[in-house]
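Deliverable D5.2: sample structural annotation.
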Amino acid sequence: MTQLNYWSDTATNREPVETTLSHLGYDAGYVGIIKKIFRIAQTPVSKLSPQQYLMQDAFCQQTELLESDALTYTHTGQEVYPFGQSCLRSLNRSSRGNGALFGSTACNCASTFKVIDLYRRRQQSADNKASARKRHVIVTCDTGFTPILKDIPGSTVTGDARSAICLDDGAAGDYQLISYESQVYPAHFGGAWEDEEKHSVYEKTYKDRIVALIEQSLAGLALDAESRIAIVPHNVNVYTWKAIEKKLNNPQLSFFTDGVADHGHCYGSDAFINLQLLEQRYAEQDSAEQDCAEQHDAPHSPPHPIPDYFLCVTAGVGGFFSSVTLKRTDTNKDPSYD
């Protein structure tokens, strides 16, 4: 079974959405929608290009990256394709050229999940031969260093973040990769450049397509009445996810949207940022419960049950909807978050 480890962080500086949106020419009314309805207060901002942000410190020096058999760089901003190539070359130098290299931006924010699926398929076709077991590292990084990358009009404000994901069938990992699901809608391949009529259809059907993806993902899991599933979403906005939660009306699901207010939408890193925040929540909860037990006090608030599965969901502009389902293997992991 494929094991997954990851590292993720965001830019240290936080910029209020009022500042970001005023620079982009939006009025106070739109700022109010973003803050009060979509619940985005600020975003991490580095003011660096993806390559500068990715390579500014030792983030890419993990041993797993240096020992990988394959290395992939994924990103969303197709307008900055040369930066993707530059990042891939820089990563190759950091990893001393030990692994096969390729980049992917075709599925936009869902590109990282798609590469996870490619690894999964490769391992399945390897017919369980030990010699075919490989370690694959995926690095994703996007920054909003140009106006077109700073917001998705009527939807979200973006932040600067980076993540590294290590997939390995032959080593221990913090998560077990359970499944990958996707739904692709070719009619919307035009993405941000599709005509107004098609984009209107995309907007109207967006929530229903996320619902269909989640239901498809759940159908492939061995669930019972006691199973608990955490939905780990991409951070578009809280309003959309509350509507999706209402449509699903499933008490076994918990939707984690706490990362939206402080981060906005950090492209392909959202799922891994939110996994870290969830780990931090459970670690703090365990600590509080232990303190209460030692002092013979009742807990101050009802605990969040630790989920059996983490269902990570994303959508890439262009009609790419995908999910990755994970199961925790190491409950003693010490969460780290910037």
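Annotation notes: The longest strand covers residues 175-184. The two ends are 30 Å apart (CA to CA).
The annotation will be released with the project's public dataset once the embargo ends.
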